[in-house]
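Lab notebook, design round three. We kept the backbone fixed and only want residue identities now. Task for the bench partner: fill in a sequence for the structure below.
Input structure tokens:
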């Protein structure tokens, strides 16, 4: 991969966890001469300036994108269509528009109709994050060793895909190009349903707590505590993910429910063999993920200079 050619002016629309991580990494690797951001939240704009994430922070998305040669939408996916409508008249000739949304087809459908012909649209999704939000939550190494999926469409061209690939590669990500629909199916099972399960189990335990008083917190075992980390993820972001990847999530959820019913039956009928076989298979998957270096549960994942601390 050729060295990334720095962008003249990078505009981050939304300045939360992901945008602030991009800003830090872009600065660290000299990937943009100027970085500006936009957010309707005055506290986020002030924090972005105080942390040195952006040279200018705008309340107006349209003003923010003027003169930028790379604009990345880093808002919850549910507002990306409205943001595209706001900025469409102010995007520079030849600008690349990208995004970091956790859902791809819904974002393409919402954004593309608003774009003028002179803009290249290259949707993308970094498979990296945490349960925290806001400008202070980001860190420069977030994308190191993690996947960045690009889902080109009729408004992308090879040159802008190559430039965006070089940008993310310079921040440490590994880039994979994929069809948007396929991305949404894969992420439904690997990311969206796990979050739904975490929200559900913590909610169920919370309901039980009215009966058992504080025992849910007092005796919370490690497994449950891991779920509470995921269930602490941003409510707006995740509401939008489920509403915008509805079909894939419902399809995967139907499969999941069938398999859960089979486990329920195995427990009811004392079928230890079925339980043992599944648990053996899933243990092997966990080990394969660790062997592939994709275990972000290790506290130092992505932050190591030499990668030596990854589980
Ligand atoms: N958090 C993760 O783990 C993660 C990982 C990969 C991708 N993503 C995706 O990245 C995007 C941002 O997530 P985040 O975790 O950084 O969120 P965040 O809540 O930390 O930040 C969102 C930012 O968008 C701003 N915003 C909201 N509405 C806006 C609007 N109409 N115009 C301009 N700015 C607006 C907010 O003020 C905030 O600054 C989402 O689309 C999410 O699906 C998140
Ligand atoms: O590590 C976490 O906290 C995450 O949930 C990150 C995670 C994921 O599911 O892996 C969440 C949403 C994204 O779109 C990408 C990454």
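Proposed sequence:
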């Amino acid at each position: 991969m050729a060295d990334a050619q720095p962008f003249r002016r990078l505009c981050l629309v939304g300045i939360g966890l992901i945008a602030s991580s991009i800003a830090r990494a872009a600065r660290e690797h000299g990937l943009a001469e100027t970085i500006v951001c936009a957010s309707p939240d005055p506290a986020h704009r002030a924090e972005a300036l105080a942390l040195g994430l952006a040279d200018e922070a705008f309340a107006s998305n349209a003003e923010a994108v003027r003169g930028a040669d790379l604009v990345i939408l880093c808002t919850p996916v549910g507002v990306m269509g409205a943001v595209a409508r706001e900025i469409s008249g102010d995007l520079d000739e030849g600008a690349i528009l990208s995004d970091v949304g956790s859902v791809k087809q819904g974002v393409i459908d919402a954004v593309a109709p608003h774009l003028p012909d002179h803009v290249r649209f290259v949707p993308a999704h970094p498979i990296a994050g945490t349960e925290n939000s806001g400008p202070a939550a980001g860190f420069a190494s977030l994308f190191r060793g993690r996947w960045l999926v690009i889902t080109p469409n009729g408004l992308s061209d090879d040159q802008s895909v190559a430039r965006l690939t070089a940008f993310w590669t310079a921040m440490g990500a590994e880039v994979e190009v994929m069809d948007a629909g396929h991305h949404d199916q894969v992420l439904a099972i690997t990311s969206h349903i796990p979050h739904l399960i975490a929200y559900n189990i913590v909610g169920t335990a919370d309901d039980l707590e009215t009966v058992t008083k504080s025992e849910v917190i007092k005796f919370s075992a490690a497994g449950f505590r891991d779920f509470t980390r995921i269930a602490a993820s941003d409510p707006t972001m995740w509401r939008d993910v489920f509403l915008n990847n509805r079909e894939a999530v419902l399809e995967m959820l139907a499969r999941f429910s069938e398999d859960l019913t089979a486990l329920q039956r195995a427990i009811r009928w004392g079928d230890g063999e079925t339980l043992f076989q599944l648990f053996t298979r899933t243990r092997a998957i966990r080990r394969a993920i660790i062997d592939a270096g994709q275990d972000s549960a290790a506290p130092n994942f992505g932050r190591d200079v030499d990668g030596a601390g990854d589980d």
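Keep this in mind before ordering anything: The first strand starts at residue 7 and ends at 13.
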